């Protein structure tokens, strides 16, 4: 990873447990760009967040020179372009490869979040069905890894790239879901390449310090459920 590059007023508004916020942190670390992290309070939305993302009112938000950039996939691509002279490329150089990686990133975000929230008990739903949905999606992504990586260590090749960041941001919650349900999510017997990739991803120097451990995520989920329940009970 590149050493920290000088950057005018780079701030990230978010929460440490969010996989979408983690994407932004990993992208900046890959580029060697130092930032100020503005932690949102559990169960609340700050005035800065609401003012910076008035449409969706969600984190993460990247503030670069005071200008907000919203939505994690958009932010990661912005970081790659705004700091093109620092660190490795995040998106592939080839237009077709970029399209393929974007396709699978959109696929992961379409298939995984709701099912993972069900497995974690954050929303009601059939946990067995959710587990099968996650397993099916990871099976597709196992095949995608074979095609994208071309036999190398990461989806992007020899180093972490766009699709690694997107899918890798869920790894902590995969492991938390395993603790909660007692069942494997990243199953070495079903998706051996992804299981090995996840270990490499978590050990990467741009990732290891910002990847939450499963136990902390389980505790966070319990605290969030309690905060939401308390908020719902207020008149």
Describe the protein:
By secondary structure, this protein is α+β, with helices and mostly antiparallel strands. The chain has a 4-stranded mixed β-sheet. It has 2 domains: 73 residues, Glutaredoxin; 121 residues, Glutathione S-transferase Yfyf (Class Pi), Chain A, domain 2, CATH 1.20.1050.10.
From the spread of the alpha carbons, the general shape counts as: globular
Total beta strands: 4
- Kindly report the CATH topology of the largest domain: Glutathione S-transferase Yfyf (Class Pi), Chain A, domain 2
Query: What is the annotated CATH architecture of the largest domain?
Result: Up-down Bundle
Mean pLDDT across all amino acids:
93
For the termini, the CA-CA separation is: 50 Å
What's the order of the H and E elements?
A: EHEHEEHHHHHHH
Give the percentage of residues in beta strands: 5-15%
In quaternary terms, these chains amount to single chain
Structural class: alpha+beta
The level of helicity is 40-55%
Unreliable runs: none
Number of helices: 9
Strand order of the largest sheet: 2-1-3-4
**What about the largest sheet?**
4 strands, mixed
Backbone CA Rg: 18 Å
Total discrete domains: 2
What is the highest CATH level, the class of the largest domain?
Mainly Alpha
Compose a concise summary of this entry.
This protein has 235 residues and is an alpha+beta fold. Helix content is 54%, strand content 7%. The chain contains nine helices and four strands.
How do the helices and strands line up, and which of them pair or pack?
Layout: E1 10-14, H1 19-31, E2 36-39, H2 47-52, E3 61-64, E4 67-70, H3 72-82, H4 95-119, H5 127-149, H6 162-168, H7 171-181, H8 192-203, H9 214-233
């Amino acid at each position: 990873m590149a050493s920290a590059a000088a950057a005018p007023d780079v701030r990230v508004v978010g929460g440490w447990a969010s996989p979408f916020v983690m994407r932004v942190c990993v992208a900046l670390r890959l580029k060697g760009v130092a930032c100020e992290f503005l932690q949102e309070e559990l169960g609340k939305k700050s005035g800065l967040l609401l003012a910076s993302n008035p449409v969706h009112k969600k984190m993460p938000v990247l503030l670069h020179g005071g200008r907000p950039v919203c939505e994690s996939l958009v932010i990661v691509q912005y970081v790659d372009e705004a700091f093109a002279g620092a660190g490795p490329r995040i998106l592939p150089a080839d237009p077709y490869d970029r399209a393929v990686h974007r396709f699978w990133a959109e696929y992961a975000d379409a298939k995984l979040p709701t099912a993972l929230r069900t497995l974690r008990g954050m929303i009601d739903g059939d946990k067995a069905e959710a587990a099968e949905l996650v397993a099916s999606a990871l099976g597709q992504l196992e095949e995608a890894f074979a095609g994208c990586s071309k036999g190398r260590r990461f989806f992007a090749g020899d180093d972490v790239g766009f699709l690694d960041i997107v899918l890798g941001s869920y790894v902590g919650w995969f492991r938390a879901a395993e603790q909660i349900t007692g069942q494997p999510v990243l199953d070495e017997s079903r998706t051996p390449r992804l299981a090995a990739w996840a270990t490499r991803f978590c050990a990467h120097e741009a990732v290891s310090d910002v990847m939450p451990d499963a136990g902390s995520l389980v505790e966070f989920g319990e605290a969030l459920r309690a905060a939401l329940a308390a908020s719902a009970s207020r008149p």
